[in-house]
Amino acid sequence: SASHKILLLPGDGIGPEIMAQAVKIIDWLKAERGLNVDLSEDLVGGASLAKYDVPIRDEVIAKAKVADAVLFGSVGDPAWKDVPFDRRPEVAILRLRKDLNLYANLRPAKLFDPLLSASALKPDVVRGLDLMIVRETVGGVYFGEPRGIETLPDGTKRGINTEVYTTAEIERVARVAFDLARLRSGRVCSVEKGNVMESGLLWREVVTDLHKREYSDVTLTHMLADNCAMQLVRDPRQFDVMVTGNLFGDLLSDLASMLTGSLGMLPSATLGTPVGSDKRAALYEPIHGSAPDIAGKGIANPLAQILSLAMLLRYSLERGEDAALIEQAVSDVLASGLRTADIAAAGDTPVGTEEMGAAVLKAL
Amino acid sequence: SASHKILLLPGDGIGPEIMAQAVKIIDWLKAERGLNVDLSEDLVGGASLAKYDVPIRDEVIAKAKVADAVLFGSVGDPAWKDVPFDRRPEVAILRLRKDLNLYANLRPAKLFDPLLSASALKPDVVRGLDLMIVRETVGGVYFGEPRGIETLPDGTKRGINTEVYTTAEIERVARVAFDLARLRSGRVCSVEKGNVMESGLLWREVVTDLHKREYSDVTLTHMLADNCAMQLVRDPRQFDVMVTGNLFGDLLSDLASMLTGSLGMLPSATLGTPVGSDKRAALYEPIHGSAPDIAGKGIANPLAQILSLAMLLRYSLERGEDAALIEQAVSDVLASGLRTADIAAAGDTPVGTEEMGAAVLKAL
Ligand SMILES: CC(C)[C@H](C(=O)O)[C@@H](O)C(=O)O
Ligand SMILES: CC(C)[C@H](C(=O)O)[C@@H](O)C(=O)O
């Protein structure tokens, strides 16, 4: 088979440590399963700032554009907290999303049965939880203009950001949610704050229209974002596919993933089509952040990164079988009782990043 | 003592039913405790739309301005979901906040011990939870200009809202949080999304500066809003006083209150100083909404409204003793096992709104 291009961007904090475990699995797939990939790796975030003085270089963006998929670690480093706004580490992921037009971020919140006790919620509330938040990622207040901080005549300041959504931006991400719902439970809940924000009102209108025109087989409901934050705590299993804007999606998907109690387990995919290209682009990354507090200690959980690789194999390389093998290996390792510190229960002796990675490899 | 002016605005849905129970307690305080108040009542929200074709009349705003305090029920009514944006029921509360310059919304999330089992969270995670979110309520994306929906040349649309915060707006609400922290645990956590939004970056700067200048005895921490949503689920008791903008405060305070499992119990206060006045204005309301699904059935929990009255007595009328009496009566009634449907456990026979109100009155 033709060689696939994968760009690895480990980033900051625990990123490089967990990426190393995913790479071992790629090596195994090459040796044992005939995977034909052309790997390249580069720096982003604080790591790139340290070497190149920018959070991401244009040539990294260019490499990402021609890659079949990007496997991303995480960015964010307190060492760079006082840099100018446009040079902060986070710009790396924001530019990748924007420049590759990765507009739909799929964030599953799935509870792994053997980890049920890790959730802060009662078992009866979260058992079997398996929802998917589709978050818009190239629009909204993250990218709207005008933006910035201006100084007023009296020397005090004014910070401004702009939330913008167009019909086209809302439609394309809603389509992803509806299509996904057809493969799942056939239900979509669209979330906005249309009782206060006109951009949310338009969001609701556009989703409603699209539903009527093309997806009337799917059940569509609407929920205000504040109510949604409550409902996710009260009874998260009422949801299957959810679709929402960039900012609400940021909060609600983090909230939803924490319901599972095992953030270190959750992968995500961000999909889109770069402008001027007919190729689908995709970036895969753990839901968790760079966790600077535990970086370099060798104790981070590599499973979200490994499961992100599985998603990459399935959705970008059409290697669903390899993906299933990896997912099964992760299940087996968990069933065998192995735990990193983040998912360890009282009494467990946690293993480190390397050991967990090696165990998955062995289970393959 | 001089007569205090209280404006009652029951609003929509369950608002009138629960307000009626609070009024009975006011009557008791007049008869038994020498409370000297001058009550007036008016329509807001859908109720006002039905009679006057506007969600709130200017004369109601004027009455609110001269009142010592407003006791508010709730607004929101699906019957008015298709009215133009500036006529929706919610405009009533938004205008009251804005026109009275009620910039600091104090939202406690306090767990009532006898209701511990009502929470979706494990008892060990939420036992004794008692945090306070100070939410900015007259700025941010709720009121920023430009805003609206415009039609593009091709007939599709564009929805716009603007998030704006100035140094002065941030400082005054942060002050409320710091002052409150001095009366509580001495800790404030400030929440924004300064890694993505310049308005959040300014928020963090201004809070940091104010802290350095005037409140260095208080412990200040900062947290990103997405992380905060997670931390509220993972370990809510790490927080005491939190301060955040209008939109994040909307989501995070609803989330926090749901952690207690008893939304029907939680009061709130919104404080400020009308421009051109030297009098402190205040509005007290339950955290829960108008609950149209159970409106008119006589089963709503009146306790959040009754506890809102207690807050009003304490903070606006300097009648802390009366407030304490009411709070004690509510505790006693809960301890006696009485439950409305929303806080009933399996096996309880829930009582209705009237019965619960009467029980509090009797316990006084
Ligand atoms: C790192 C940060 C810019 C990013 C975001 O806010 O989108 C992160 O929180 C996420 O959710 O991927
Ligand atoms: C009714 C609505 C406009 C309001 C808000 O969004 O502020 C409500 O959700 C609240 O939190 O008081």
TrEMBL record, chains A, B:
SMART domains named among the record's database cross-references: Iso_dh
Cofactor binding note of this UniProt entry: Binds 1 Mg(2+) or Mn(2+) ion per subunit.
Keyword Oxidoreductase: yes
Classification via PANTHER family: 3-ISOPROPYLMALATE DEHYDROGENASE
Reported cofactor(s): Mn(2+); Mg(2+)
Catalytic reactions on record: (2R,3S)-3-isopropylmalate + NAD(+) = 4-methyl-2-oxopentanoate + CO2 + NADH
First-listed, main subcellular location of the protein, grouped into a coarse class: cytoplasm
Gene name for this UniProt entry: leuB
E.C. code: 1.1.1.85
Protein name: 3-isopropylmalate dehydrogenase
Annotated function: Catalyzes the oxidation of 3-carboxy-2-hydroxy-4-methylpentanoate (3-isopropylmalate) to 3-carboxy-4-methyl-2-oxopentanoate. The product decarboxylates to 4-methyl-2 oxopentanoate.
Amino-acid positions noted as binding Mg(2+) in the UniProt annotation, renumbered to this chain: 226, 250, 254
UniProt-listed InterPro entries: IsoCit/isopropylmalate_DH_CS, IsoPropMal-DH-like_dom, Isopropylmalate_DH
Keyword Transcription appears in the UniProt entry: no
Family of this protein: Belongs to the isocitrate and isopropylmalate dehydrogenases family. LeuB type 1 subfamily.
Functional pathway: Amino-acid biosynthesis; L-leucine biosynthesis; L-leucine from 3-methyl-2-oxobutanoate: step 3/4
Pfam entry (one): Iso_dh
Keywords for the protein's UniProt record, in alphabetical order: Amino-acid biosynthesis, Branched-chain amino acid biosynthesis, Cytoplasm, Leucine biosynthesis, Magnesium, Manganese, Metal-binding, NAD, Oxidoreductase
Compartment(s): Cytoplasm
GO molecular function: 3-isopropylmalate dehydrogenase activity
UniProt cross-references to SUPFAM superfamilies, sorted A to Z: Isocitrate/Isopropylmalate dehydrogenase-like
Binding site for substrate: 97, 107, 135, 226
Domain Isopropylmalate dehydrogenase-like intervals: 5-360
Site (Important for catalysis): 142, 193
Chain segments annotated as transmembrane: none
